[in-house]
Amino acid sequence: MQNTPTKKTTLKVVILGDSGVGKTSLLNRYSTGTFTGQYKATIGADFLTKQVVVTDWTGQRHVVQLQLWDTAGQERFQSLGVAFYRGADAAMLVYDITDPSSFDHLEHWRTEFLQQIGVSIPALQEVPFPFVVIGNKNDKQNERLIPAQRAEEWCLRVGGNRPLYRVETSAKTALNVDEAFEELARLALQYG
Ligand code: GTP
Ligand code: MG
């Protein structure tokens, strides 16, 4: 079989969600394979890069340089963050399965983000932008307050004809963390 050359691409990804849902922890797990139980608020926004190899829907291999932007969930640090939304190719919407308000705020994060990057929110049948929805802290099953079903329904509703991809992760145990970022890269390539 003939080898098709691998394409090189850089993708900008923004991680959004309430303070404390685990955005920084997911990035740390993904980039360095580490986890700490200590909380240190992110101020403004910061980015790191990671290279992944992704095969797209046509079978084409891509070497993707992911530029991952960690943003602040705390309101007082958010205004610094929005400037970094520009040029994003994909976004991750993170909630905590034990924190209902973090789930309720996903709609706010999504619309605010789209507004900032200048994408108008179209009819429900159209999907304006590649989002991946992450239910984090899956290791805390006995404290779960958001059933998977409820989150699925939201992804179906806002996704219109193409439900938003959703997965539950744990930055603590590493469950589905690599998978989530790979899916995000794959989706961004598809939209791009
Ligand atoms: P801001 O920077 O304020 O927006 O918060 P953040 O979303 O970056 O949250 P962060 O990653 O700092 O995590 C908040 C707290 O949740 C920390 O104490 C983490 O240790 C903890 N945490 C993050 N992910 C997980 C997880 O998957 N499981 C468990 N049990 N704890 C987690
Ligand atoms: Mg953070």
Automatic annotation (TrEMBL):
GO cellular component: endocytic vesicle; late endosome; lysosome
Keyword set, alphabetical order: GTP-binding, Lipoprotein, Nucleotide-binding, Prenylation, Protein transport, Transport
Gene Ontology annotations of biological process type: protein transport; regulation of immune system process
MF terms in GO: GTP binding; GTPase activity
Family: Belongs to the small GTPase superfamily. Rab family.
Protein name: Ras-related protein Rab-7b
Species annotation: Fistulifera solaris
Residues of the full protein shown: 1 to 192 of 229
